[in-house]
From TrEMBL, chain A:
UniProt-recorded name of the protein: Glutamyl-tRNA(Gln) amidotransferase subunit A
EC number: 6.3.5.7
GO CC aspect terms: glutamyl-tRNA(Gln) amidotransferase complex
Gene that produces this protein: gatA
Gene Ontology process terms (BP): translation
Gene3D superfamilies: Amidase signature (AS) domain
Automatic annotation (TrEMBL), chain B:
Organism: Heliorestis acidaminivorans
InterPro entries, sorted: Asn/Gln-tRNA_amidoTrfase_suB/E, Asn/Gln-tRNA_Trfase_suB/E_cat, Asn/Gln_amidotransferase, Asn/Gln_tRNA_amidoTrase-B-like, GatB, GatB_C_1, GatB_Yqey_C_2, Gln-tRNA_amidoTrfase_suB_CS
UniProt subunit comment: Heterotrimer of A, B and C subunits.
Protein name as annotated: Aspartyl/glutamyl-tRNA(Asn/Gln) amidotransferase subunit B
Family recorded in the similarity comment: Belongs to the GatB/GatE family. GatB subfamily.
UniProt function note: Allows the formation of correctly charged Asn-tRNA(Asn) or Gln-tRNA(Gln) through the transamidation of misacylated Asp-tRNA(Asn) or Glu-tRNA(Gln) in organisms which lack either or both of asparaginyl-tRNA or glutaminyl-tRNA synthetases. The reaction takes place in the presence of glutamine and ATP through an activated phospho-Asp-tRNA(Asn) or phospho-Glu-tRNA(Gln).
Length: 491, 499
């Protein structure tokens, strides 16, 4: 039985009805993981033996007649920027290659308490900076749909592992599209929750005002199940919203008849591949057939999102990443003459090119004399972008757009051109600046490569995003294919 | 200060550690000392992924200090990151407050030569303390290695910045003295300079008398005591004056006071100054401070040093000098008030005691400002841990007042009290120090002494005053100091007249 190709809610039924044991399940997914890992390269570290021991405990629980939770015994993967007590957490960086946290992130603790079983930590762009998973200290992860393509980034390992059946679900983090873009490229469901919905405690910060953790899964129901576990107020995160988490599964199997869906024109047209637009137009027809009304609208400040983002995110990153100085943990240069050279050599040797580029950008933007012109201005633009959304949501239940302007690109294609790489996130950045939730689900394929559809919602209305995504998923069945692991990549 | 050829312009920046139980952004203890790196957790160590959560007590304390310094409390305040690299700063940024401090626009009134002078308080802001480095090989310059201790990292601080209103070293000392007293009175800080819980930096500049523009300033750091502040300011003022007299220019720079060398040393110039790249900390939401919150804190303000000084003068008739010394430290003032209670002369504010009470209060004050302070200073103790309790001091004064012991004997008893902590009555009884006031007994000693010394009697008759002193001494010697001196005098004169 190919257990690895099933969804968490299906596997839960099999566990509860004792058709499958948790050990069998972990064995099956671990075998798949091992089998395809040489092609996909999704994992940074694995913990298969520990996972099996945890599965045995779940089986004991089932055998003794105890009830188990929806994620109990379900194998999953965690992006390597979330702290896991006693397990290396590297951010795919040489800088943290030997860092073993003495504590776990809130989301990791919650999943652990819910009985989910972590098979390992998955690859990413270094410190979550990138859109292709190629900025990893390790070799870049590949797209399971076509192995010479990138899986997207920065949560490339999270997306690819789920698409390839190496994990049933995973967690990623999204600062400018790092969940949704790889979800789109790998044909899986990826949700970026509202800023403040999911605790950031233990998430190694890239840009604190934009970072948000969210799930990757193979269908919308699983996404809702994972959100039920990870969302909610955390007293350890002052930016975590003090609100009650709804039961996200309660939004499933509900009609979207009469919903008004805004289609911002700025997300279509120039820069969007024809094949992507074609699939999106088809998806819009499907939504209309489900009783929704689609209306073109405008988010006039969209064009400023990219420059605004590339001021704010690097500025915060320049400060967040300053602690990696070689003094207390992680990488330290071998040849330092004094304190200053220890700092600078550690940092120039420990960080990759993209990380250094963004630290430079951010340091510059915050420098005395430039602060007002760059950082302060960007904050004002951010407010305008947020107001665009506020205005749109006065009229619409959700907004719809492509998740990415193109399908997954070929490995190496954009590495030499950072600006072109930054363009990959053009459809996803605004959402982070506005702090609103957005989901990417598979809308179809072009030449065998998945195309993502993005729904954007009002703050704390993840439930409605799940509702419309589920309705769409039920109507199309797009999500039911496994990635074929075709092709190869010279790397 | 006209005798000096320049006008001195100074402002002080004072850092006070807040006396909260836990650190500013985590639950670790703020206790001083402890084995290295034991008062730490992932949050104050700034490990990857951690987030700060504000300890609200810190805002309470900062607000209390702000109110005591007559500041306006901001209704909207926020934290900013001050970015710089140093091994004692584990996040490579300090969470501080930049443009929206919790309190601003206050003042305190110091007293200089009996005249009141107002020193403006620009701002009071909250921030986290850094760790400590221990340099292998003694000083930093010769260190082969350095060790970092992060126990102090994240201990809450307030920084109190004064306006450049200070015009002399005396004013600087008086300002710091009063500021320290206010922080102690409000119990927001224990102000132990030797433990670093109160630290002072100074901005110093000179200008020709009559010039409006400020001269170029230097910032002095590392003054760890009042004495160090005084010496550093003396040195720096003279250094700047010499540069200016020779037609030179002051370089804007940060200078460090070197206690051993007794001089200030350039640390970094303006060109080398850090660009701290302040920006709002995205991990901490702004602090919204309601009127109710401010009022709640205002209710907790205690009687402040100056109000207390006025009360001591008005209620007990203390000379204002005594009152200012006593109220200069909260512990000393508390001691005085407790002693007054024990002596039965305590009064609510606004009432004043009778002459008898005033005399008693003055006696308490005399003992405190004299012998007791001297002994406490000599043994490096404060009033809060005085071996002589206020109640025991009053018991001693009562023994003197009632004539049980003489003032001279009281000194002996006092010393014994300080050494042993015993009650004065017990000491007097144990050592048999009760004053002899029995006229018959003294008269007998007097006649015996007089009879033994005919030559001195002759001297007395010849008008030599010294003779009386001799007889008194002899009587005291014979009674081992216990004879009531008044009676001795009276009986001696009677006896001598008979001769």
């Amino acid at each position: 039985m190919k257990l690895y190709s099933k969804r968490a809610h299906e596997l839960h039924e099999l566990l509860v009805s004792k058709q499958v044991s948790a050990v069998e399940l972990v064995n099956d997914v671990a075998a798949r993981l091992e089998d395809v890992e040489p092609k996909v390269l999704a994992f940074v570290s694995q913990r298969i033996e520990d996972a099996k021991a945890e599965a045995a405990r779940v089986d004991d629980k089932i055998a003794s007649g105890e009830t188990i939770g929806p994620l109990e015994g379900i194998p999953m993967a965690i992006k390597d920027n979330m702290c896991t007590e006693g397990i290396p957490t590297t951010c795919s960086s040489k800088m943290l290659h030997n860092f073993v946290p003495p504590y776990s992130a809130t989301v990791v603790r919650k999943l652990n308490e819910a009985g989910a079983i972590m098979l390992g930590k998955v690859n990413m762009d270094e410190f979550a900076m990138g859109s292709s998973c190629e900025n990893s200290w390790q070799e870049g992860t590949r797209n399971p749909w076509r192995l010479e393509r990138v899986p997207g980034g920065s949560s490339g390992g999270s997306a690819a592992s789920v698409a390839a059946g190496q994990a049933i679900f995973s967690l990623g983090s999204d600062t400018g599209g790092s969940i949704r873009q790889p979800a789109a490229f790998c044909g899986v469901v990826g949700l970026k929750p509202t800023y403040g919905s999911v605790s950031r405690y233990g998430l190694i910060a890239f840009a604190s005002s934009l970072d948000q953790i969210g799930p990757f899964s193979r269908d919308v129901r699983d996404c809702a199940q994972v959100m039920n576990v990870i969302a909610g107020h955390d007293p350890l995160d002052s930016t975590s919203a003090p609100i009650d988490r709804p039961d996200y599964t309660s939004f499933l199997n509900k009609s979207i008849k009469g919903w008004r869906i805004g289609v911002p024109k700025e997300y279509f047209g120039e820069g969007i591949d024809a094949e992507v637009e074609e699939v999106l137009r088809k998806a819009m027809k499907t939504l209309e057939s489900l009783g929704a009304e689609l209306v073109e609208c405008s988010l006039p400040h969209t064009e400023y999102a990219l420059p605004c983002y590339y001021i704010i995110a690097p500025a915060e990153a320049s400060s967040n990443l300053a602690r990696y100085d070689g003094v207390r943990y992680g990488f330290r240069t071998e040849d330092a003459e004094d304190l200053i050279s220890m700092f600078s050599k550690t940092r120039s040797e420990g960080f990759g090119e993209e990380v250094k580029r963004r630290i430079m950008l951010g340091t510059y933007a915050l420098s005395s004399g430039y602060y007002d012109a760059y950082y302060l201005k960007a904050l004002k633009v951010r407010t305008l972008i947020k107001q665009d959304f506020d205005r749109a949501f006065e009229k619409f239940d959700v907004l719809l757009s492509p998740t990415t302007p193109t399908v997954a690109f070929t490995c190496g294609d954009r590495l030499e051109n950072p600006l072109q790489m930054y363009q990959s996130d053009i459809c996803t950045l605004s959402v982070n600046l506005a702090g609103i939730p957005a989901i990417s689900i598979n809308a179809g394929f072009a030449d065998g490569l998945p195309i993502g559809l993005q729904f954007m919602g009002k703050p704390f209305e993840e439930g409605r995003l799940l509702q419309i995504s589920h309705a769409f998923e039920e109507a199309t069945g797009c999500h039911s294919q496994m990635a074929p692991l075709k092709g190869g990549c010279e790397g | 200060m006209r005798d000096f050829d320049f006008e001195i312009v100074m402002g002080l920046e004072v850092h006070a550690e807040l006396h909260t139980k836990s650190k500013i952004f985590c639950g670790c203890t703020t206790e001083f000392g402890g084995e290295q790196n034991t008062h730490v957790c992932p949050v104050c160590l700034g490990l990857p992924g951690v987030l700060p959560v504000l300890n609200e007590k810190v805002a309470d304390y900062a607000m209390k200090a702000g109110l005591a310094l007559n500041c306006k409390i901001a209704s909207f305040s926020k934290f900013d990151r001050k970015n710089y690299f140093y091994p004692d700063l584990p996040k490579a940024y300090q969470i501080s407050q930049f443009d929206l401090p919790i309190a601003s626009g206050g003042y305190i009134d110091i007293e200089i030569e009996g005249k009141k002078k107002r020193i403006g308080i620009t701002r009071v802001h909250m921030e986290e303390d850094a760790g400590k480095l221990v340099h292998g090989g003694g000083s930093l310059a010769y260190a082969g290695y350095s060790l970092a201790d992060y126990n102090r990292t994240g201990v809450p601080l307030i920084e109190i910045v004064s306006e450049p209103d200070i015009r002399s070293i005396e004013e600087a000392i008086a300002y710091l003295d009063l500021l320290k007293a206010i922080l102690e009175y409000t119990e927001v800080s224990d102000c132990k300079m030797e433990q670093g819980s109160l630290r002072c930096d100074a901005n110093v500049s000179l200008r020709p008398w009559g010039q409006k523009e400020l001269g170029t300033k230097t910032e002095l750091k590392n003054m760890n005591s009042f004495k160090a502040l005084q010496k550093a300011l003396e040195y720096e003022i003279e250094r700047q004056a010499e540069v200016l007299r020779e037609g030179g220019k002051i370089i804007q720079e940060t200078r460090m006071w070197d206690e051993n060398k007794g001089e200030t040393i350039s640390l970094r110039s303006k060109e080398e100054a850090h660009d701290y790249r302040y920006f709002p900390d995205p991990d901490l939401p702004p602090i919204i401070i309601s009127e109710e919150w401010v009022e709640r804190i205002r209710q907790t303000l205690p009687e402040l040093p100056q109000a207390r000084q006025i009360r001591l003068v008005e209620s007990y008739g203390l000379p204002s000098y005594d009152a200012s010394v006593i109220t200069g430290s909260k512990a000393m003032a508390d001691y005085f008030d407790q002693a007054c209670s024990a002596y039965g002369i305590a009064l609510p504010a606004g009432q004043s005691t009778d002459d008898k009470g005033k005399e008693r209060a003055k006696q308490i004050s005399n003992y405190m400002m004299g012998e007791l302070s001297r002994r406490l200073n000599a043994s490096d103790q404060g009033y809060q841990d005085s071996p002589i309790t206020p109640e025991n001091l009053v018991e001693l004064l009562t023994l003197i007042e009632g004539g049980t012991i003489s003032g001279k004997i009281a000194k002996t008893v006092f010393d014994e009290m300080f050494e042993s902590g015993k009650k004065p009555k017990q000491i007097v009884e144990e050592k048999g120090l009760v004053q002899i006031s029995d006229e018959g007994a003294i008269a007998a000693v007097v006649s015996e002494v007089v009879a033994k010394n005919p030559q001195v009697v002759a001297d007395f008759k010849a008008g030599k005053d010294k003779a009386v002193g001799f007889f008194v001494g002899q009587v005291m010697k014979a009674t081992r100091g216990k004879a009531n001196p008044g009676l001795v005098n009276k009986l001696l004169m009677e006896e001598l007249k008979k001769q």
